[in-house]
Specification:
Elements lengths: L1 H14 L4 H5 L9 E7 L7 H17 L7 E5 L39 H8 L19 E7 L2 E2 L2 E3 L4 E3 H13 L5 E7 L16 E5 L8 E6 L4 E5 H13 L8 H11 L6 E4 L10 H4 L21 E2 L3 H12 L3 H33 L2 H7 L9 H14 L14 H4 L7 H13 L2
Parallel strand pairs: 1-2, 1-3, 3-7, 7-8
Antiparallel strand pairs: 4-5, 5-6, 8-11, 9-10, 9-12
């Protein structure tokens, strides 16, 4: 009975993505390993594409590219496969092939465990007491690949109920570098304003970051499925995974720089960008980070697929989704409810802009200066102020998770940090948000 109970306990843990036996294996003395941390930071049905992207990537890394499952750490809210709106229960399809990519994915952290702090703790190699407990055990000989997909804003990446700020990410990356927790690290980030997370990244930390957008623009969703009423993928993410599948199994023949340039040309909706080390990692084959396909590959090379790129800017997708549902509503009660919800969000988008103008007016003391700070996004020179101001706005006014369109206007707030103190801006946020 004791043996049976022990086996059952080990099996239960393994299902969550933790492998007790493999976890005890020591790293090889010579040569390093590849580690991957992949994150879908959103929840809700209309954000289907984020979890689809991550599930697709999980299979690429493990089944096709040969990275051991115990070296891949997955964070995903996991509310799509069995969502009440999913007509194919237990299935998530990807845009490139239309195949189920959910089955077989080991999700280490799901639901309320998908948080910025848990993500940073994983990168720092701290063992967590939630989820599978799996963490990044990389060392000075190892390469690390990080993929993040979700909403974003100036100096922030979204999580299901919270945000990751550039100030905190920068501190973690510096800590990883100082503690020699990697030899080289490559980030692929799909989010609006994703370039703003890495624009100040030092070129001397052996880190390179590819982003779907630059510092001042949205990223885009692609491939609309009319039956599911959702987008199946994000344009830039689909492009780089499409390119990776086209060259399979010869990943060693394309460098990080070459893939960046190829995908940059493929991505016409936003400006794919790159930051950090543009010397050494640039010349590395992508197999250094994405895996080395062996002779026992499970699939043949995938021919290029012609994808119908019906695209929409990420901040506008929720409202588009609601309008599509309204058109298909079959009863008056549902139609009335959706009309009210759509009206609320349209009015709120206008209201947010008014609030931001009032905040800027109060801080600067001049309507002329309001126009200056509202013109276009500025670089983030004071990450601490950026964090304080946005945290105050999200807690007292509107959250980007429930009102994603606000990310289009947040720069009007964060620009103020380049001239005024965070205390003064936060006071104006609290006063104006409390009145609305």
């Amino acid at each position: 009975m004791l043996k049976i109970a022990l086996f059952a306990a080990i099996f239960a843990i393994a299902v969550q993505g933790y492998h007790p036996v493999e976890d005890l294996l020591e790293k090889t003395e010579h040569g390093g390993q590849i580690w991957a941390v992949i994150v879908a930071g959103s929840k809700s049905w209309y954000n289907y594409r984020h979890q689809s992207d991550v599930c697709h990537l999980y299979h690429l890394l493990t089944k096709k590219h040969g990275i051991p499952r115990q070296n891949v750490i997955t964070l995903m809210y996991n509310d799509i496969a069995f969502n009440v709106e999913n007509p194919r229960q237990g299935i998530i399809i990807n845009a490139l092939h239309g195949k189920d990519v959910y089955e077989g994915v080991m999700i280490d952290y799901m639901g309320r465990d998908v948080t910025p702090q848990n993500f940073l703790d994983i990168l720092n190699g701290q063992r967590l007491r939630v989820g599978s407990g799996k963490t990044l055990k990389s060392g000075p000989k190892d390469t690390v690949f990080v993929n993040f997909v979700d909403h974003g804003g100036p100096g922030i990446l979204g999580f299901p109920t919270d945000e990751l700020h550039v100030a905190d990410l920068t501190k973690t990356l510096e800590n990883m570098y100082n503690e020699k927790r990697y030899k080289q690290m490559l980030w692929y980030v799909e989010a609006c304003y994703s370039g703003s997370m890495f624009s100040k990244l030092s070129p001397d930390m052996n880190i390179t970051a590819h982003t779907a957008s630059n510092t001042d623009e949205s990223s885009y969703a692609c491939v609309k499925d009319e039956d599911l009423d959702v987008y199946l993928g994000d344009c830039w993410s689909l492009n780089w995974m499409n390119n990776t599948e086209q060259i399979f199994p010869n990943l060693e023949k394309e460098t990080v720089e070459q893939q960046y340039e190829i995908v940059k040309k493929m991505t016409t909706e936003s400006h794919a960008s790159i930051y950090g080390d543009l010397t050494y990692i640039y010349s590395e084959p992508i197999s250094t980070f994405l895996g080395h396909p062996g002779t026992g590959a499970e699939e043949e090379p995938v021919p290029e697929r012609k994808i119908k790129y019906e695209s929409t800017a990420t901040p506008d997708i929720m409202l588009e989704y609601l309008k599509d549902k309204r058109e298909k509503a079959t009863n008056s009660e549902e139609a009335e409810r959706l009309d009210k919800e759509i009206k609320y969000h349209i009015q709120t988008e206008g209201k947010v802009q008014e609030i931001l103008e009032q905040i800027s007016r109060q801080v600067t003391g001049s309507w002329d200066m309001v126009a200056v700070f509202s013109k276009s996004p500025q670089s983030i020179e004071h990450p601490g102020c950026n964090k304080d101001v946005l945290s105050a706005f999200f807690s007292q006014c509107y959250k980007m998770q429930t009102h994603p369109y606000i990310t289009k206007y947040l720069y009007r707030l964060t620009n103020l940090c380049n001239m005024y103190s965070s205390d003064k801006i936060v006071d104006a946020v609290l006063e104006n948000c409390s009145h609305n």
